[in-house]
Amino acid sequence: MMHRDRWTLRALVLGLGLLWSLPAAALNAGLNPPPPSVDRKTPQATVQGFLAAAHRGDYALAAHYLDLDYIPRAQQAERGFQLARALKFVLDRKLPVDVSALSKEQEGDPADARYDQLGTIPLQGNNVPVRVQRVSSTEGELVWVFSESTVRQVDPLFAEYGPRLVGLLPAFFFSDTVLGLEPWQWLGLLVTVLGSLGLAVLLERLVLAFARRVARWTRFTWEENVVSSGKGPLKLLTFSALLVVGTLLLRLPRPAQGVFIRIGYSLSVVALAWAVLRILHVSVAFVQSRVSSEMKDAARARSVSTQLVVLRAIFEVATYVIAAALLLIQFEVVRNVGVSLLASAGIAGLVLGLAAQKSIGTLLAGIQLSITQPISIGDTLITEGEWGTVEKITLTYVVLRTWDQRRLVIPIVQFLDKPFQNWSKGNPEMLGPVILQVDFQTDIDALRAELRRILENEGKALWDGRVATVVVLDVLDRTLTVRALVSVSDFSKLFDLRALVREKLVAFLRAHPLWLPVTRTEARPFPPPELDPARLSASPDLPPAPPVPPRA
């Protein structure tokens, strides 16, 4: 008995020795040898290499980063391909991986060198850890791969979070990736974009039709105009929402999903800004039409119209600024720049304030002009020696339409810094002079009577009957300056009445030639030879010549 036990012990020792002398079992022996490009020396290199290969669609290469030893060797190539693809899909959808947070050391995390954990994914009430673990490779060196426990959970995770179309589409749609997306996802994107566009058009028509029916219940036309202005912005807003929802259903990788979320967000901001601008335009036009039809005071109506135009410009600028800020704030680079600028807000504010002093002053002048309203749209002005009507007012300049149909663009600050004439302010009644140069012999009373006759006959439609005077305004060395003063109830008639009075008075003076101004000269004849003062002084027999009066 003891002899048999002794032989058994010897056989056991011999077997252990033979096992010890055999080479270690190869890692993933069912796969081809890994190429030199496969780097599995650190946790970070393993995860980074797996994601790079999987996103390229090279799932055969990505399988070398998985621990497949629990799978029979004959099935490792096929199952490794499938598991690598499924793990890539699950990580992209449910676990954003920060590769920089993983250990760069060959020994792994000093706190726990057994494994390095990427995170956990919820599955049926439990949290499945996703880890990379250090194991022995074929050459006997230690390498990092996704642990066996993690790989065993890939199929359940893919069944929970993977696409439902795997059994409905051919294998071609799941075999490769283009720009990080598989063919079925590209097909889904095409269907999503076209379907979202079609649904957006249909929903816009239905919503606008319902809104128009509701708007007809009121007696105002503003609601109908607002509903009509929603055509376009509503479609864009609906399309952006459907696009985001559709891409979420496609379960795209996080980078691609983030791109479509930003596109949807940007389109939504543009749609809302577009809608606000259209509603502003419709509202201002509606109020202006009501003011023009219901306000009897024309000056007050022009004042309200000017306020509406300037306020609309202010709100439009604010809408553009807010929309641009909302679009830019979604980018991390812009937010970082904004934080940096805020850190140096004192210096930046001073520099920008000095650089934009004139521009900011112009904008403030436009706002001040809309509040104080020294001018309004439609006012008649005289500025810079030009007579015209205010055609347009913006936050920076005013367009003046002159009497000869020219457009004079004037900086808005000029109306706050320099004097100008506004004929539309206050009472529209005005006085207008007609200046004439006449002879000293002119009968001023006859001119007064003629002025009265002209106003009561030819100028009856223009004259308001208040003022009709003729006065001698100045006495010059050769003529009299006469001023005929007339009045009108509306300044728009003043020019025509002055021109009429000037024409008729000139015709009246032409009928009295002696009243027209003339240039007078005085001629004196020379004395006869016998009365020449020089000869008289030389001859004592002749009487002295009379003195010659001095020339006037």
Task: Write structural notes for this entry.
The protein has four domains: 43-162, no CATH class; 183-330; 379-422, no CATH class; 430-511. With 552 residues, it is of the alpha+beta class. A hairpin with a 4-residue loop joins β10 and β11 (480-488). α7 packs antiparallel against α9 and α10 (254-294) packs antiparallel against α11 (298-328). The chain has 18 helices and eleven strands. The strands form three sheets. A five-stranded antiparallel β-sheet has the order 7-6-5-4-8. It has a three-stranded antiparallel β-sheet with strand order 1-2-3. It holds the Pfam family MS_channel_2nd.
Short summary:
The chain is of the alpha+beta class.
Strand fraction equals 5-15%
Unreliable spans are 13-24, 341-348
Q: How many β-strands, per DSSP?
A: 11
Spatial strand order of the main sheet: 7-6-5-4-8
Structural class: alpha+beta
Query: How many discrete structural domains?
Result: 4
Largest sheet: 5 strands, antiparallel
Rg for CA atoms: 49 Å
What is the helix content? Answer: 40-55%
**Number of helices, counting only DSSP H or I runs of 4 residues or more:** 18
Shape: rod-shaped
| Mean pLDDT figure | 74
**Separation, N- and C-terminal Cα atoms:** 177 Å
The SSE string, one letter per element, is HHHHEEEHHHHHHHHHHEEEEHEEHEEHH
